[in-house]
């Protein structure tokens, strides 16, 4: 079954994701660990940029400022994109949501893998940095695909009126996927109109329950 174009509505619900997630759940972990490391380095660059802010004029003259002062928006390489890049990255993201739980007290996702390095913020920053190395279309499509998933899970949560044996808890998955997308867009400074077009405002309330 197809998931449809990036901007389409998820008419088939959550079921099309199941076979893909079974395939990529473990095989993509090295990718995610790499994103987390990239994100940690980006956060370190942000800290360095704050320290260097007083020396901005000197660094500008020396041509050394670029990536340090705006690491999230910097382009570090120029490569042709792999096939189906944005779709693949959305599936990788969805496959990793099971590693997190939403903590309402800390208002963040916390990683359940105690020995891992998959902290929430570095991972989404690393993923965003990776996508930014390619044509902007792929970033837009990734957000649209994630918006598709959030809406598909929301539909599943609504129709799940009777207790069933499920591989995921729709209510928990809805919170995690919504929070992931909101914070990804925040860190990557995604325009509000794009964000609003992918995530209905009514879904924001799920993070308050």
Primary descriptors:
WASH_strumpellin, WASH complex subunit strumpellin, mainly alpha, single chain, 9 helices, 209 residues, two-stranded antiparallel sheet
How much of the sequence is in beta strands? under 5%
Largest sheet: 2 strands, antiparallel
What general form does the structure show?
globular
Distance between the termini: 33 Å
What is the residue-averaged pLDDT? Answer: 78
Helix content: 55-70%
Instruction: Report low-confidence residues grouped into runs of 5 or more.
Output: 62-66
Q: What is the H/E string?
A: HHHHHEEHHHH
Total of domains: 1
Structural class: mainly alpha
Q: Total strand count, please? A: 2
Radius of gyration: 18 Å
Strand order within the widest sheet? 1-2
Helix count from the secondary structure assignment: 9
Pfam families: Strumpellin (PF10266)
Protein name: WASH complex subunit strumpellin
InterPro entries: WASH_strumpellin
Family: Belongs to the strumpellin family.
Describe the structure.
The chain has 209 residues and is mostly helical. The chain has one domain (17-208). Helices cover 56% and strands 4% of the residues. It has 9 helices and 2 strands. The chain has helices at 17-24, 29-52, 56-62, 66-69, 85-96, 120-132, 136-159, 170-187, 192-198, and strands at residues 100-103, 108-111. A two-stranded antiparallel ribbon has the order 1-2. A hairpin with a 4-residue loop joins strand 1 and strand 2 (108-111). Helix 1 packs across helix 5, helix 7 (136-159) packs antiparallel against helix 8 and helix 7 (136-159) packs parallel to helix 9. The chain is globular and about 55 Å long. The relative contact order is 0.15. Residues 62-66 have low confidence and may be disordered.
């Amino acid at each position: 079954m197809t998931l449809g174009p990036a901007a389409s509505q998820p008419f088939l619900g959550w079921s099309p994701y199941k076979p893909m997630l079974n395939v990529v759940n473990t095989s993509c972990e090295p990718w995610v660990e790499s994103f987390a490391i990239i994100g940690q380095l980006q956060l370190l660059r942000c800290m360095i940029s704050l320290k260097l802010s007083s020396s901005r004029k000197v660094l500008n003259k020396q041509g050394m400022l670029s990536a340090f002062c705006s690491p999230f928006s910097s382009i570090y390489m120029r490569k042709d994109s792999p096939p189906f890049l944005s779709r693949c990255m959305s599936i990788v993201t969805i496959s990793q949501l099971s590693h997190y739980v939403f903590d309402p007290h800390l208002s963040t996702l916390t990683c359940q893998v105690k020995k891992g390095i998959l902290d929430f913020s570095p991972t989404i920053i690393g993923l965003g940095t990776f996508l930014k190395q390619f044509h902007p279309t792929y970033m837009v499509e990734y957000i649209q695909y994630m918006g598709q998933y959030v809406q598909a899970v929301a539909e599943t949560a609504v129709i799940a009126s009777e207790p069933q044996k499920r591989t995921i808890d729709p209510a928990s998955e809805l919170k995690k996927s919504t929070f992931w997308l909101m914070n990804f867009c925040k860190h990557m400074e995604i325009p509000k109109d794009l964000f609003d077009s992918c995530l209905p405002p009514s879904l924001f309330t799920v993070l308050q329950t």
